[in-house]
Write a structure and sequence with these properties.
With 268 residues, the protein is mainly alpha-helical. The chain contains 9 helices and 2 strands. It has helices at residues 3-15, 38-50, 52-63, 69-80, 87-111, 118-150, 166-181, 189-212, 218-239; strands at 248-254, 260-266. It has a two-stranded antiparallel sheet with strand order 1-2. Helix 6 runs antiparallel to helix 9 (218-239), helix 7 (166-181) runs parallel beside helix 9 (218-239) and helix 8 packs across helix 9 (218-239).
């Protein structure tokens, strides 16, 4: 049964034409560049840092350090394995979910409109994929650097590479890339909302599986999700050459003599 979602995602490019152009008349990936300019890079960094997809898991990871909640939840999950039934089963599911996220990203890449000519289509796809691979590569390197720097022991005491979770980071960066690509696919309504909701949940599901498998603490997973989401948002906004179309936005305002106001909006 686990292969059914992957089969559906593999079939997605067949159901959705990858030809044509986006509403702005350009092809997806056509304007990708290695030299976006410092202004765009700075804005992309700010968008990534302020994205709820980054600061919500970051804040949750910090809150778990209160009263040893991180360790206590990990011990309970490893003992009870309430979702996946066993540590071995949880480990297998976590791997399968990460694989599915890569398939989901690849499917959305193929399905995005990148032009009507063969040469233009293939060139745009290669440039767009290059941006995605950059995000994935930086997310992976960052997790490895942090693992070596923090040397946190895994719950099963296997080694000192617990923080942050590479599984969660890779699942997050690929699903966030897919999530952003969905804005340029010719789908609307419940189909779009359902797909976006599912891809946002998958990194957390994969991460929880790692907790039940005694590979990570919950904070390790949340940190991995934050890292993956950060690089997906940053690379897309900085290098893909398409203005961000994130459905979830935060607005911060200040009224002199009054106070700061913070608003969170989510467009469906």
């Amino acid at each position: 049964m686990r292969i059914l979602p992957s089969l559906f995602l593999i079939a997605l490019p067949v159901l959705l034409s990858g030809c044509g152009t986006m509403p702005n008349g350009r092809g997806w990936g056509q304007d990708a560049t290695l030299l976006p300019g410092w202004d765009r890079v700075g804005k992309a960094a700010m968008n990534a840092v302020s994205s709820p997809h980054v600061w919500i898991p970051t804040g949750a990871a910090l809150l778990l350090q209160i009263d040893d909640a991180d360790e206590r939840i990990s011990d309970w999950a490893a003992e009870e394995t309430p979702v996946f039934g066993s540590s071995v089963g949880a480990d297998d599911v976590s791997d399968a979910l990460v694989y599915s996220t890569v398939v989901a990203y690849g499917a959305t890449v193929l399905a995005t409109p990148s032009g009507d000519t063969r040469s233009g289509w293939s060139g745009s796809k290669l440039k767009g994929v290059g941006v995605g691979l950059g995000a994935i590569g930086f997310a992976d390197v960052t997790t490895q650097v942090l693992k070596n720097a923090t040397e946190r022991r895994r719950p099963n005491d296997e080694n000192d590479k617990s923080f942050p979770s590479s599984h969660a980071a890779i699942a997050a960066v690929t699903t966030m890339l897919a999530y952003q690509n969905t804005d340029f696919l010719p789908i609307q309504g419940w189909s779009k909302t359902t797909f976006k909701t599912v891809v946002l949940i998958v990194p957390y599901a994969s991460g929880w599986a790692r907790v039940e498998a005694e590979k990570h603490y919950p904070a390790d997973v949340l940190a991995g999700v934050a890292i993956g989401n950060f690089f997906a948002v940053f690379f897309n906004d900085a290098f893909l050459g398409i203005d961000s179309a994130d459905d979830m936005q935060v607005a911060i305002d200040y009224v002199p003599g009054n106070a700061f106001t913070i608003g969170l909006s989510w467009r469906f």
